[in-house]
Amino acid sequence: MIADAALPALPEPVVVDLDAQGRLRTPEGMPVPADRVADHLARRLRIPAWASDIHVYVHGWRTPPATAVRSATKLLYAASGLWTARPDRYPGLNDGYRPWCVVVRWPSSSRPTLGGYRLIRDRAHAMSADGDGHAPYVIGHLLGYLDAERADPRTAAVLANRHGQYLHLIGHSFGGRFLCEAVQRAAERPPVLSWSLPRDSRRPFTVDSTLIFQMAAPRDAFTRDFAKLFPSDEHPGAPLGGPLVLTHSRWDRATGFWHLRAEGAPGIGHSGVGPAPVPQFSTRLLETGARYPPHVLDHRVVNIDADWLYRGGRRTRLSPAGAHSDFLHPESAHLLLTLAERSR
């Protein structure tokens, strides 16, 4: 696990709270009207000029608000610590790695039972559903605002000796579903940035990488629910300029046992992505001292087998969710940092 001691100092993440309908809430808990969302985000979010990388983190099942902030903070602390200790392992980050984070929180608490899992599954669906679900609308506005306000990496002169600011998404469990739904519905904007994937002029703003830990969704979700994430003759695809990377572990009981009972099949967090409208690549989570070969992560969908690490301690193994939340490891931060590096 990621230790608390000897971590580099980073600012606290900025928090965005949603209610059970996916509506944006003020710090006092009041819902923000839909026509005020953009103004509210503009007042709350000020991207610091020193930041090299902007991360948006959305938590998953049974995550208290304070734990969501702490999880995101620990991941970025660990990533920053890895770069500080061995910058030679991340040569693409020759201008440094200075992360800034926005944490999206939503009501995910329930009993650790089949009924509790179904309750949060249904809530996550309702928060994203067409017509009544506001979460994709709010998160889409959030991503659009961050994209519009960040320094453009294509114009190195914008910030002295830096290439600009990169935008990365991090999701856990049901949080990954929110992110996929949000970028799938995002309003069209001009394309930005790199990776080897071909550009499409119809695409909206571009997210540089997306990392989802233990996604709580059916294995066929990318053909059934999220097919529009990827470009086709009929539509331009979502604004994903980099890879969509998803971890899985057979020790994850939430997306294994509970998902199997609730959905009739294990989920992505347990068994990886099943059928998808684009080619996939499967590989293994690496230790912090090993570099990912360039071709391994440069695909539209990448399955990361974390069986060897995401196992949970003795208490975790006995919990109903198993290793579902056992992703806060230096190796996870190493994967996150490598994605940031390869986005340059």
Topology:
Blueprint: E1 14-18, E2 24-25, H1 37-44, E3 53-58, H2 65-85, E4 99-105, H3 114-128, H4 135-149, E5 166-172, H5 174-185, E6 209-213, H6 221-224, E7 244-248, H7 254-263, H8 268-271, E8 280-284, H9 294-297, E9 301-305, H10 314-318, H11 330-342
Parallel strand pairs: 1-4, 3-4, 3-5, 5-6, 6-7, 7-9, 8-9
Antiparallel strand pairs: 1-2
Helix pairs in contact: 1-4, 2-11, 3-5, 4-5
Which key phrases capture this entry?
single chain; 344 residues; alpha/beta; nine-stranded mixed β-sheet; 32% helix
Structure overview:
This protein has 344 residues and is α/β, with parallel strands linked by helices. It is 32% helix and 14% strand. The protein contains 11 helices and 9 strands. The chain has a 9-stranded mixed β-sheet with strand order 2-1-4-3-5-6-7-9-8, with helices on both faces. Strand 1 (14-18) and strand 2 form a beta hairpin. It is globular, with a radius of gyration of 19 Å. The relative contact order is 0.15. The model is unreliable at 156-163 and 187-204 (pLDDT under 50).
